[in-house]
Amino acid sequence: MSLGLLLLLLIALAALGYVAGRQRALAAVRGDARDLHSLPAYYGQAVALAAAVPGLLVMVVWLITQPLLVERTTLSLILTEDIGPGSSRELVMADIRRIAEGMGVLVATGAANEGEIAALATQPDALKDRLAAVNVALAAPISAPVAQAALVYRQSMETGQGAMAAAVLAVAVAGFLLALWRVTPAFRARNVVERVVQVLLIAASSLAILTTAGIIFSLLLESWHFFQLYPARDFFLSLTWSPKFGGGSDLGLWPLLWGTLYVSVIALLVAVPIGLMAAIYLSEYASPGLRAIAKPAIEVLAGIPSIVYGLFALMTVGPFLRDWFAQPMGLGDSSSSVMTAGVVMGIMLIPYVSSLSDDIINAVPQALRDGSYAIGATQSETIRQVVFPAALPGIVGAILMAASRAIGETMIVVLGAGAAAKLDLNPFEAMTTVTVKIVSQLTGDTEFASPETLVAFALGLTLFVFTLGLNVLALYIVRKYREQYE
Amino acid sequence: MNDMRLTERVVTETAKMTARGVQVHYGTNHALKDVDVDILDKTVTAFIGPSGCGKSTFLRCLNRMNDTVASARVTGRIEMDGQDIYDPRVDPVQLRAKVGMVFQKPNPFPKSIYDNVAYGPKIHGLSRNKAELDEIVETSLKKAALWNEVKDRLTAPGTGLSGGQQQRLCIARAVATSPEVLLMDEPCSALDPIATAQVEELIDELRAQFSVVIVTHSMQQAARVSQRTAFFHLGHLVEYGETGHIFTNPSDPRTEAYITGRIG
Questions:
Q1: Which of A14, A474, B153, B226 has a C-alpha 20 to 30 A away from that of B31?
Q2: For residue A484, what pLDDT is reported?
Q3: Does B39 touch chain A (CB under 8 A)?
Q4: Statement to judge: residues A7 and A71 lie in one domain
Q5: B contacts of A377 (beta carbons < 8 Å)
């Protein structure tokens, strides 16, 4: 039975449970819903949940554990000497899965029945030809043990699927009947449903946390692999970045980190003043009509894909800065520069700063403004001395969010600042950032286990630690001001 | 109404502010109709009346706070010491320094206690140096009967005080610009009885220095603190006169109905 059909059955059972639970509850009080502990719909929901949730849980657990068990038994059929030079258990297992999949296709298209498949498993070459005929191509010839293992794999998976369907349906029907049996007027269906909803909410939030933990773990693991191959001292202290595909690379972090910070600082120098002033104008001075037009118009900037900003940097801002600033001042003649990327990134960040700050400034109570006006303060004094300090924690949060965004930005840097890792103070010099190098290190043709590739994970980890630090700082600042102001 | 102190009080007869034929429209809503009132110098004047009767609206005309409401339109004539306060030559910002205001809910700024009080003197340049500013802050806090409670923690945030203390801080803040009139819009409605009693006592003391106008929902409060009472109803000024007279011998049947609890 396929997974989709099984899911459909579960849904149907849950729907049936809803109707049956509701009916049974109403029948128990002869149609007078006032005698029930909960509204009739809650009884229906309780039965539906009892039918669907345990079944789904069994299905999820089964889907995770079955491949692990089956692969273990299959691999035990392959002896170590069957694994050829340059191959590994993982590669052999991938072949087995592919062949088993091909067998499935053969059966599905009617090209062979189960008996023929079993026979084919003893003739690896014929099997390869038959598989090729249904567009399942294999690079190497199939060895006999692999073919046998594939057959076992396929059979175990099939059996497992059947067993799973039976188990899931059994659990679902049992839950359905048990819940239906428990439906009495005194049954607190509302509390049960609300408890289940609560568990669902907990599960959703823990999923987010677990994902984060998983990402960090994989970053840490790959970074650890990198530091096995490349000394951490050189990574953190070297001032040169020159990866050579073939070994002997210099993988110093500083040129990249410097580029990242330089570009981000310029971007914030552009975005923060403009964004804040725009926010103050919009929230304090603009008429409602103008605000209704101007605010969405600024937010359109946030909707432009960053690659389009990159093109703008490459085609317009870069040459402009080169012709009007860099060359006349004798600071270089490259159109790719930190300045180009920073300015364009700053433009991209304006709506982040302005939109968030605008909301925060609007949230400052009108009573504070009235208090200030009543003392005889002008509007600008009120904004500078009362509204702005009150909104400051939120504004700092908005700025740090923009900073995180700037640090993680890639496309604008590739097109605006180039890809040359350099430690330089000249803002009209081409430089590059951590994110750009992560992309370029991972998209090459080098072998995955080399330090040149794995350095990407160490860079990613550094970046992560950096943005995490920024967020912690933001929280700290916000909390500090909160204590003072509330 | 045994708790009312309807005793004879010293009343000066010089008018500090005079309002003649004041009308206020909020958009199409005619909120205040043809109001004539004289606010006497060094006197507490109470505005009473049911919710929505226009008493707060009129109060906000006296320091032109209605200017900050886009839809509000004020006509008629309001004079302070013979000068029309709606004259184009009058800067509303300067006017508000002379006509202070305290609001219904305490609204201290998110600043220290010191900075809250020093805010007005700083923006109006009332002090020449730090010592003078310290002096103003101290006297203002003393006038607001808050000095003894906060003198050791002037740098603590004003928002950390209790509700009653916050309201007295707001009074100190308004007093710090040496206003000639102090407007209070239901200053005790967010306070507990003890804090209310403190603020009422304070109002009585402040009367020695300037005229106080207080909007209140509590008739007992009006009777306790004021010398003059104005009764508003549905945007009209129904009756205005000496407080004892209004409460014991009202001339308009609507006033009598309100103070005996039949309308409102």
A1: B226
A2: 53
A3: no
A4: yes
A5: 93, 119-120, 123
Q: Are A452 and A474 within one domain?
A: yes
Show the domains of chain B with their CATH numbers. Answer: 15-259 (3.40.50.300)
Q: What is the ipTM of this complex?
A: 0.88
- Rounded to a whole number of angstroms, the distance from the CA of A272 to the nearest CA of chain B is 23
Residue A361: its chain B contacts at CB < 8 A? none
With a CB cutoff of 8 Å and minimum separation 6, the contacts of B161 are: B108, B113, B150, B169
Evaluate whether residue A118 is within a structural domain. Answer: yes
Query: Around A227, how many Cα atoms within 13 Å sit in the side-chain half-sphere?
Result: 13
Contact B145, B168 (CB under 8 A): yes
Domain count for chain A? 3
For residue A362, the enclosing domain spans 241-485
Question: In angstroms, what CA-CA distances link A418 with A333, A421, B109?
Answer: 13, 9, 49
Partner-chain residue, chosen from A368, A381, A484, that has the shortest CB–CB distance to B107: A368
* Whether B103 contacts chain A with CB within 8 A: yes
pLDDT tens digits, residue range B35-89? Answer: 999 999 999 999 999 888 889 999 999 999 988 888 889 999 999 998 999 988 9
Whether residue A222 is found in the same domain as residue A246: no
Q: Which residue of B has its CA nearest to A365?
A: B107
B187 in reach of chain A (CB within 8 A): no
Residues A272 and A196 in one domain: no
Write the residue in B108, B123, B174 that is nearest to A377 by C-beta.
B123
**DSSP character string of B156-218:** SBGGGS-HHHHHHHHHHHHHTT--SEEEEESTTTTS-HHHHHHHHHHHHHHTTTSEEEEE-S-
**Numbered residues of chain A with Cβ closer than 8 Å to any chain B Cβ:** 365, 367-378, 381, 385-386, 389-390, 484-486
**How far off is chain B from A377, nearest CA to CA, in Å?**
6
Among A374, A381, A390, select the one facing B63 at the smallest CB separation.
A374
Q: Are A46 and A193 in contact (CB under 8 A)?
A: yes
For A26-77, the pLDDT digits (tens) are 998 888 888 888 899 999 999 999 999 999 999 999 999 998 888 888 888 8
B119 in contact with chain A, both atoms CB, cutoff 8 A: yes
Q: Quickly count: other Cβ atoms within 10 Å of residue A384's Cβ.
A: 13
From B97, which residue of chain A is nearest by alpha-carbon distance? A376
The C-alpha of B168 sits at a distance from chain A's nearest C-alpha, in angstroms, of: 14
Asked if B111 reaches chain A (Cβ–Cβ under 8 Å), the answer is yes
Q: Are residues A124 and A259 in the same domain?
A: no
Contact B159 A390 (CB under 8 A): no
Backbone dihedral angles phi then psi of residue B23, each to the nearest 5 degrees: -120, 140
Task: Judge whether residue A303 has pLDDT over 50.
Answer: yes
DSSP state of A255: H
Pair A335, A456 in one domain: yes
Give the residue-averaged pLDDT of B124-145. 91
Per-residue model confidence (pLDDT) at position A240? 86
Task: For residue B6, name the pLDDT band (cuts at 50, 70, 90).
Answer: very low
Question: What whole-number percentage of chain A has pLDDT above 90?
Answer: 40
Structure tokens at B7: 């005793």
Q: Which of B65, B157, B173 sits opposite A484 (nearest CB)?
A: B157
Residue with tokens 């009150």: A390
pLDDT digits (tens, 9 = 90+) for A165-222: 999 999 999 999 999 998 888 889 899 999 999 999 999 999 999 999 999 999 999 9
DSSP result, A366-414? HHHHHHHHHTT--HHHHIIIIIHHHHHHHHHHHHHHHHHHHHH--HHHH
Which residues of chain B are within 8 Å of residue A389 when distances are taken between CB atoms?
109-111
